[in-house]
Write a structure and sequence with these properties.
13 helices, about 325 residues, alpha/beta, 5-stranded parallel β-sheet, two-stranded antiparallel ribbon
Length: about 325
């Protein structure tokens, strides 16, 4: 399986801090695509949106990216035993409630002022302790150098600074109009097998405002707590090998890393043990890497104008970055 980095003698070395590549960005920005690409790099393990484990894995028993239901997945069973002595030793409902309470965008300011809210500080410390044990267990079970967590949210990225980890924030941004259009689409979630459930949808205004707020918050996290590298979705799909080189260097991966699997603009996707994420994580085989530009033909002109008006300050900055990388291959961030 692609999630295994164990050496030939099947032993795990836990020397040093576990390195976490946290992929942050607005939903529908290509975070799952980037996570799957990183999961193909030697020494990396992609685990999906790890903070959804309590709700979507333990409580709902949805499908893992490998195709098995979460509670039937041997990988996650081993992780649960290593982290907690078994999943029955944790209160998944309580942890899911904590996740929903603590990992909202509005809690980012509270994380910087937790001393004035002792009750909040206690809850976030308890949640961080469980997440730390989870990361460390994945590190030990896989012996991978880098755990790729695509949980996206700024509050989850900020939480990493509270753990005994070596965190890195890979901040992914896509053209706001493409993101907003994608939020309007009706897409089935294949990981739910007992009923038909669709991915969440948002209005034009809510999706645009959310795009601004989350990306702005990730800038704050990068300045205050966790090293940050900016990656444009458009630049990645245009030059995946060059962008992955930048990311690998940022993460401190071995200089002799083999990224030739990206040379043909196609991603070899093997089953990975991803907890949650875009449905493309269930596609296996060779997946072309190409930009989703459907919004250019199908998005209403009024919606385009509204999104542009709401997002222009950041879009101007990100647009320059996209154009500069395509023309010059620059490494900004």
């Amino acid at each position: 399986m692609a999630a295994t980095c164990l050496s030939s003698n099947e032993t795990s070395t836990a020397d040093g801090l576990a390195k976490v590549a946290f992929i942050g960005g607005s939903g529908r920005s290509g975070t799952t695509l980037l996570a799957l690409a990183l999961g193909n790099v030697a020494g990396c393990v992609a685990v999906g949106e790890l903070h959804w484990l309590w709700e979507r894995g333990l409580l709902r028993n949805e499908l893992c990216g490998c195709g098995a239901h979460f509670r039937d997945c041997a990988f996650w069973s081993t992780v649960g035993t290593e982290a907690f002595g078994g999943w029955d030793q944790v209160d998944a409902r309580e942890l899911g409630d904590l996740r929903n309470e603590l990992l909202q965008l509005r809690t980012v300011p509270l994380s910087f002022a937790s001393r004035v809210r002792p009750d909040y500080a206690q809850r976030i410390a308890a949640y961080a302790e469980h997440m730390e044990r989870l990361y460390l267990a994945i590190r030990k079970v896989t012996n991978c150098d880098v755990i790729v967590d695509s949980s996206k949210s700024a509050s989850a990225a900020l939480l990493l600074a509270r753990m005994r980890l070596d965190p890195y924030l890979v901040h992914v941004a896509r053209d706001s109009r493409g993101v907003v259009f994608s939020w309007s689409k009706r897409v089935v979630r294949p990981e739910v097998t007992d009923e038909v459930v669709y991915m969440g949808r948002r209005s034009t205004t809510r999706a645009a405002v959310g795009w601004v707020a989350l990306n702005a918050a990730l800038h704050v996290v990068g300045r205050a707590a966790v090293p940050r590298l900016f990656v444009s979705y458009e630049s990645f799909v245009a030059s995946p090998r060059a962008e992955m080189d930048r990311i690998a260097e940022f993460l401190g991966l071995a200089p002799e890393r083999d990224l030739s699997f990206l040379d043909d603009h196609a991603l070899p996707v093997a089953p990975m043990h991803t907890v949650a994420g875009n449905p493309l994580r269930f596609r296996h085989g060779s997946m072309p890497i190409s930009s989703d530009e459907e919004w250019r033909q199908k998005m209403a002109r009024g919606d385009r104008m509204l999104v542009s008006a709401l997002t222009w300050p950041l879009e101007v900055t990100y647009g320059k970055s996209r154009n500069g990388r395509r023309a010059h291959g620059s490494a900004g961030g």
